[in-house]
Amino acid sequence: MDLKKFVLEGNPVCRKEAVIVGDHFRITMLTTALIRFEYSEDGGFEDRATQMVCNRDFPVPEFRVSDSGEELHIYTKDLEIHYDRQKFSPSGLMIRVAGGKASERVWHYGDEPKDLLGTARTLDEADGEIPLSHGIMSRNGFSVLDDSHTMAMGEDGMVEPRQGNRADFYFFGYGHRYVECLQDFYRLCGKTPLLPRYTFGNWWSRYHKYTETEYKELVERFEKEEVPFSVAVVDMDWHLVEDVPPVYGSGWTGYTWNKKFFPNPPEFMDWLHKHGYKITLNVHPADGVRAYEEAYPRVAEKMGIDPASKEPVLFDMTDPKFIETYFEELHHPMEEEGVDFWWLDWQQGTVTKVPGLDPLWMLNHYHYLDSKWKGKRALTFSRYAGPGSHRYPVGFSGDTFITWESLKFQPYFTANASNIGFGWWSHDIGGHMFGYRDDELTARWVQLGVFSPMNRLHSTDNPFNGKEPWKYNQIVETVMKNFLKLRHKLVPYLYTMNRRASRAGLPLVQPMYYLEPEREETYEVPNNYYFGTEMMVSPITDKLDPVTGLAGAKTWIPQGIWYDFFNGRAYKGGRKVDLWRDIYEMPVLVREGSIIPLKDMEGYDNSIENPEKLEVLVYPGESGEFVLWEDGGDTPEDLDENWVSTRMTKTADENGTVFIVEAAQGNTAVIPQKRSWKIRFCNIQDKPQEVTVNGQVYKDAEFAEDEKIHGTIVLLKDVPADAQVKVTFAADAAVYQRDYAEEVYEILEKAQITYAQKTEVYKVVKELGTEAVPVLVSMNLNPSLLGVLMEILTMGI
What we know:
The protein is α+β, with helices and mostly antiparallel strands. The chain folds into four domains: 3-105 and 140-189, no CATH class; 198-504, TIM Barrel (Alpha-Beta Barrel); 595-729, Sandwich (Immunoglobulin-like), CATH 2.60.40.1180; 738-797, no CATH class. Helix content is 21%, strand content 23%. It has 14 helices and 41 strands. The strands form nine sheets. The protein has a seven-stranded parallel sheet. Strands 32, 33, 34, 35, 37, 38 and 41 form a seven-stranded antiparallel sheet that branches. The protein starts with 18 loop residues before the first strand and ends with a helix. The relative contact order is 0.08. The model has no long low-confidence stretch (mean pLDDT 95). Residues 614-683 form the DUF5110 domain.
């Protein structure tokens, strides 16, 4: 095996013109706001890539140096740096960041950053909030990432200890330009890779002793129930566990299929593939390879051990020979049989033979890069191992407790991880262990999962703990099925955001303060986040109020008009509100003018390939544009020639509304040559004036009323991929007019209050409309009921 494939991509050597150097210090001006500082008593500096940093080849920024001989002063448009040329100290190195309050924008060496935090290694055994590590965004305008203690990356693909006791850190002084800060972090530490398309469907996972027969029956039940999944996770009992002879210790680590459970593994995996599933197996590699393993003889011989000795092959990711053997003799054969990627369930600490080297980082790095060997897109599934881990998606967040407290923490935890560039967390949706049975909790967790980077249902090995929808009451079963179908509908949108994350350095999930950093309210809604370019999500993490049957979520609605994804309700932005929903929905708002491409899931279809039938949501607003990006879904490289783009635009003015789907551009061979379109226009209640394909009137168009979003549906069948579709509405097309009283009636009808109070409230709303708010406030109503009435009557639309 050529270990050079494990060398990080990038250019770790900076440009000479960006360097200010002395006998013991080196300062590298990467941007006007990103600076590298090194101090070395021996006068040596690090030019190799490190575990965190792989590229320092930035264009030289504008900066000015004033050197008195005793003190060094450096100025950029963003920073002023004052340094006494001595060993770094609080009095000797000071940086002032432009903008903001002067007292808050000054940093002295050694000051603990007051940043917005990042993420954590794991949520194992978490029952609610846990401490987070540092990120790169700060309300004070600066943060610091220390790279002094990571390993260097050698030219042979192996890690190498640093030389000497040297200081090496990066100062981020971007003020509140959070997005720019994050994009430069990706430039420094490596971009977020492109994920395979299948990762965006639903994942099924359970710690359970499945047999092949039981797993197949489960998949067939999912198909019968029309519940789509794209990834089959098989936990550790795929290999020998209980039948391991005691002399070899536990069966926690294993590489030999349990033939009692899976008599023909290649046939089993081929069966799953034919049913539309990709396969990942759980592996705990810490105990190495012992003599009972089927692979032991060839592994031992390759490692120079006499197989007759039965001496164990110890796990050691610092040994190039072991790395080669580990992949070529253990993992590659099973990948040839059908394993698509590996779940690295490392729980054995942070110690290796090389002091300071984390074995989890080694596993993530080597597994991810090795996974390209079959010509497919790289993928691994493992816990977070520090800054730079975004290069090895997907993240496994660990074994959480099944409690409301765990659910309440996860939206914030997920969004906040973007502050250290980690955009692809996969949680145990529904929780893993302990806790309690609460059907409503499961429904809300699944809703969060659908609007998360990954949606992987999971549970521990307990006969009462499973996430099959039919195990829950009928209401929650319906909710789970509807949302799991919705996740597969969202794949075209999510895959486009996948490309955006990789190409533009913009994670799918972003905290609200990224786009409005000067609004205090955006910092007050930690569970509220952007979900791609078009949506904003506020997961519900509290139980339903027994009086109204609703639960609320604190939400900041940005400026402009926003529309509810599920019911089309319009909201005026620029304010913080509580959004109330019953168990069937959650607050997901869509910005005005948005265009959202979905897979048309009418009828069961488990495939996550580029769909033949597309559903497009079109929202009111003067203009909007969305470019749908598609490729083969699992091609090895992120190359332009693999892609096809389909541009969709909407314009609205005094002459009417026009929606256009342009002809697909690029490698059209990767998409269906003909497509059916279901175009849903929110709030437009007339039929189109005209529908054309390539300029010719399309006479076979069908129309329907869209009751969900109070609009019109336009149906077109078998449209060539290289054709333009144009839908035109007249200027006087009827627009949905909201009836406040009707919406209030629907709330009151279900409310568990006296009939007299229902009548009184309804009368006030009928008489006063939106002016009823002061009266309602004075009526001593249930807080939940008053909250939802405020939401309806104060939308501003």
